[in-house]
Amino acid sequence: MLTIDPALLTETPEQRELRAVTRDFFAAHGEDEALWKRMAGELGVQGLAIPEKHGGAGYSFAELAVVLEEAGRALCAARLLPTVVLAGYTLLLCDDDRYLPRIADGTLTATVAFDGDVQVRDGTVWGTADFVLSDADLVLVRAGDRLFACEAGSRTPLRVLDETRPQSRLEFRDAPATPIGSADVVPRVLDIGRAALAAEQLGGIGHALDATVSYVEQRRQFGRPIGSFQAVKHRLAALLVEYEAARSAAAYAIACVVTGSAELPVAAAAAATVCTGAYRLAVTEYVQLHGGTGFTWEHPAHRYVRRARADEVLFGTPQDHSARLAAALGL
Question: What is the C-alpha separation between 81 and 68, in angstroms, rounded?
């Protein structure tokens, strides 16, 4: 039976305030070259969940998840997931503090390459890794049963469906490698990544629902708002149910990260399954209920469609998550 303190599933007043500030910040700035520095200088986002002894603010993953949700709502701050979540938690779990202060103050971007064809020979990294998130300065690579830190090396940007989340092919040739720990932490890091992605997806769903409700309240046909039509109401009600289910699943996974619970693999797989399905429904309704304008390049709906579809395979497919969930539950 899955158990967690119910208090961890409820947003605190401080987290609500953080949400309001972060939402206003992303709405004001959007995604631009200076955003990363602004986040560090004005909000201290990068160091939010990093312990104070490593130069961070010492808050928990719950506060970071609030920021991730708002980033997902605005489709910006794409470096947060690879740098602060994947690389940051890899370093924390490996108890390696060499890079954390620079991640915390926003002067270092990082990412992970856990699935590349990489070898370490004589203290240097050789090989390639595809679909590596972000254009980061530092890459944490897996070579056999060990993890190493190295510079990014030769980078080739890849053409991907979601251009708001850039990915690259990296080639390593004689890149100096710094050992950071055992690859045993990788499964847990990936589950933390799934919980973080669920928070991002929740933000995207929230945007799609809010934007669609606002539109159907204003768009008129036959002398009345189309939101007054029963068929439209039913579709939005169904989406709201999926949204609340996604919120519950994401909250449980986030709480498991905060507590270091052994239930995280189950919670992360459940969140990935539920949030992915809800996001797919949300963007479908976002486009269709906006009618002709929802299909235009100028409207933002297509950007959320791209993000939702790309997220479906970022840490495994929905089928993968369902299989992991069934295996974890002994089904």
Answer: 8
The full set of domains in the chain, from first to last, is 6-104 (1.10.540.10), 110-184 (2.40.110.10), 185-328 (1.20.140.10)
pLDDT at residue number 2: 56
* CA 125/CA 148 separation, integer angstroms: 8
For the stretch 100-154, pLDDT in tens is 999 999 999 999 999 989 999 999 999 999 999 988 999 999 999 999 999 887 8
HEC letters along the chain: CCCCCHHHHCCCHHHHHHHHHHHHHHHHHCCCCCHHHHHHHHHCHHHCCCCHHHCCCCCCHHHHHHHHHHHHHHCCCCCHHHHHHHHHHHHHHCCCCCCHHHHHCCCCCEEEECCCEEEEECCEEEEEEEEEECCCCEEEEEECCEEEEEECCEEEECCCCCCCCCEEEEEEEEEECEEEEEHHHHHHHHHHHHHHHHHHHHHHHHHHHHHHHHHHHHCEECCEEHHHCHHHHHHHHHHHHHHHHHHHHHHHHHHHHHHCCCCHHHHHHHHHHHHHHHHHHHHHHHHHCCHHHHHCCCCCHHHHHHHHHHHCCECECHHHHHHHHHHHCCC
Q: Give residue 157's pLDDT band: very low, low, confident or very high (50, 70, 90).
A: very high
pLDDT at 1 over 50: no
Among 133, 134, 136, 119, which Cα is nearest to 174's?
119
* Predicted local distance difference test score (pLDDT) of residue 116: 86
On whether the pTM is more than 0.90, the answer is yes
Query: How far is the C-alpha of 308 from the C-alpha of 302, rounded, in Å?
Result: 10
Identify which of 321, 327, 192 has the alpha carbon closest to the alpha carbon of residue 261.
192
